[in-house]
Amino acid sequence: MANELVILGVFKLAMTTEIFEAQLPMYGDEDQCRDHFSNVVLIEAIAEAEGGLVDLISITQANGCNQAPWDEGLLSQDGNELLARKLNCVKGSDLLRFAFYIHFYDECLPLIWGKGEVVCPPPMAMPERLKMLMPYRVCD
Fold this sequence. Notes:
By secondary structure, the protein is an alpha+beta fold. It has one domain (5-133). The protein is built from three helices and eight strands; from the N terminus they run E-H-H-E-E-E-E-E-E-E-H. The protein has helices at residues 17-27, 30-37, 128-133, and strands at 5-12, 41-48, 70-75, 82-84, 95-102, 111-113, 116-118, 124-125. The strands form two sheets. The protein has a six-stranded mixed sheet with strand order 4-3-5-2-1-8, with no helix packed on it. A two-stranded antiparallel sheet has the order 6-7. Helix 1 packs across helix 2 (30-37). The protein is globular, with a radius of gyration of 15 Å.
């Protein structure tokens, strides 16, 4: 498992009325807002921390958007508990389970990270445990 990024799941953001109404002023147009959030996903993964930290900033896609993971959360090994949710919280000395959001996700492209490319499973509905542990937080 060393130096691997294992994707456990890619989950579509369940756009709620609260998220939509909070984000709409940033876009001004309902169609643009819906379009923007149609490609937001939560990715759950496992990786080994090098030097105690998983370098999430190196994760992106070659889709011209240069999006990086954000609003990451460190999960328990079984994925049923949120241990931390703040910048650079995906750290430790063992295999780490974590989740992060990424905008402009293209399911046809692999993720690129510091160790190469990772093919992801197709996006699916977000499970209830992740809705509870990692709810989408609106951008300012």
